[in-house]
Design brief:
Distance between the termini: 18 Å
Mean pLDDT: 82
Strand content: 5-15%
Order of helices and strands: HHHHHHHHHHHHHHHHEEEEEEEEEEE
Number of strands: 11
Low-confidence stretches: 1-21, 348-352
Radius of gyration: 24 Å
Largest sheet: 5 strands, mixed
Helix content: 55-70%
Number of helices: 16
Shape: globular
Structural class: alpha+beta
């Protein structure tokens, strides 16, 4: 227990300065055919411990916020930023125009992994980017951005686009930015806070319900885990995102948080490069707006409802508990519904479970070895050797070619991840007999078959009860 709290506290201190927040979908070969974890699997002692620790830390930050407000140097910095807040809309216009032009040039929509088949959506981005260049047409550009987001929901599904609600906030911010009414114009700032905060919390829960997607990044960049067990670090990193998103929602430490988060996102470029810059530029722009404006002067943030410190602490702690409960149930319902839709689509051939017949090939891939090793107590790794086979993770999503691609890993008939090399981290296994199956799949996830039979290997590992 002592080790747990020390490591968890370390995550809160260092998680924000380590490049652990890359958007998983930009770099991992994800699929909604991967079943999400159940609530029972997410509600581990570590999860519950991090919830309690988060409530303690957030309560302490309420006191920190009050102390900072009493410092003259802090107030001077705030005053200097407010003096320059007339540049806020310009920052957002330039950032969004740049992102839309880059997405347009790469036939994507809004984000790196949203490769669109709709030329209308792709070209609408170019039109909106041009509209954002002129102050007189910024509001029209905001309407156009809402249209792009709506079209993306139609093409990619609502569940996927819930990763990007900040585009709605940005669209509202741009739409009202040129209006005469100060009360209406000021709605743009809370819209940004709510949508960016929602996005951070939602993506935090993605790491908890789809750990195999993020563990792929940690396996290929083990330094990100700070020497901690990958599964534990992943939960800690998820809670860093959840906490920061919550703090944005209630309006606590808004300027320090904006500076911290944007510094973190810039640090991720050291590992993930240009894709990370492009994907996070809209969020960077929103964070700059938060720095320049704070919480604004018209609408009070939720934390400001109470004046007394004790009531603020109670409000922050109980609100956090309510928010994590709501997101937990909302995410599990949405993720399992999306999984059922993906399975139905696959069975109907809408998105494939497709097959690629190798029977006529002169040389076909063949497993020569499959074994499971217990590298640490309670933690297992899978190792395979395959003849006439090349792993091509960089070609994920491209057309399938014979004898190359990746593997799908199943434990007790449940897909747990994808194999991009000879090693795969299984993590903890259930006590008793565990059936491990690996299939070979093409770049577009087609199952390789020889005369109608899957190219696969299987083994069984017995896990003792502890």
């Amino acid at each position: 227990m002592r080790r747990f709290f020390f490591a968890a506290w370390l995550l809160f201190l260092l998680g924000a300065t380590s490049p652990a927040w890359a958007h998983v979908k930009w770099f991992s070969d994800f699929s909604y055919l991967t079943p999400p974890l159940s609530i029972a699997e997410v509600l581990t002692p570590t999860y519950l411990g991090l919830v309690v620790l988060s409530m303690v830390v957030i309560s302490a930050l309420v006191w920190v916020d009050r102390r900072l407000d009493g410092l003259s140097g802090y107030r001077q910095i705030n005053d200097w930023l407010i003096h320059h807040n007339e540049h806020s809309v310009l920052v957002m216009r330039v950032a969004m125009a740049s992102v839309l032009l880059i997405s347009w040039s790469s036939d994507a929509v809004l984000a790196p992994e949203l490769a669109s088949s709709s030329s209308v959506l792709v070209w609408l981005q170019f039109v909106v980017a041009v509209l954002l260049l002129f102050p007189q047409t910024v509001a029209v550009g905001g309407v156009g951005l809402l249209a792009i987001f709506g079209g993306s929901v139609v093409e990619f599904g609502l569940f996927h686009m819930l990763d990007y609600p900040h585009y709605i906030g940005i669209a509202i911010y741009l739409l009202v930015s040129q209006l005469e009414s100060e009360r209406v114009r000021s709605l743009g700032l809370p819209a940004l806070y709510i949508t960016v905060g929602f996005s951070l919390i939602w993506l935090g829960y993605e790491k908890l319900f789809y750990p195999s997607w993020a563990l792929y990044l940690l396996e290929h960049n083990p330094q990100l885990a700070l020497g901690l067990p990958p599964e534990f670090f992943l939960q800690g990193a998820a809670f860093v995102e959840i906490n920061l998103g919550f703090l944005l929602l209630i309006g606590l430490l808004e300027r320090p948080l904006a500076a911290l988060i944007t510094a973190v996102f810039f640090s991720t470029t050291l590992i993930f490069g240009k894709v990370e810059v492009i994907g996070h530029t809209p969020v960077h722009a929103a964070l700059v707006v938060f720095l320049l404006n704070g919480v604004g002067t018209v609408y009070r943030p939720p934390i400001a409802i109470h004046k007394r410190l004790a009531w603020r602490v109670a409000f922050a702690a109980t609100s956090f508990l309510l928010i994590v409960a709501l997101f937990l149930f909302a995410y599990t319902w949405s993720a399992h519904r999306q999984h059922h839709i993906a399975v139905a689509d696959a069975q109907s051939g809408t998105h494939g479970i497709k097959v690629f017949e190798l029977g006529a090939a002169s040389v076909v891939p063949a497993f020569t070895s499959i074994e499971v090793r217990e590298e640490m107590p309670g933690s297992y790794d899978l190792h395979v050797e395959i003849d006439h086979w090349t792993f091509t993770p960089e070609q994920a999503g491209q057309p399938t070619l014979a004898n190359q691609g990746h593997g799908h890993v199943f434990v007790n008939d449940r897909q747990v991840g994808r194999l991009y090399g000879e090693w795969f981290h299984l993590g903890e296994l259930e006590p008793g007999e565990n059936a491990i199956v690996v299939t070979l799949n093409g770049n577009d996830h087609s199952d390789f078959v020889i005369d109608g039979e899957l190219v696969k290997a299987e083994t069984t590992v017995r896990v003792p009860r502890r």
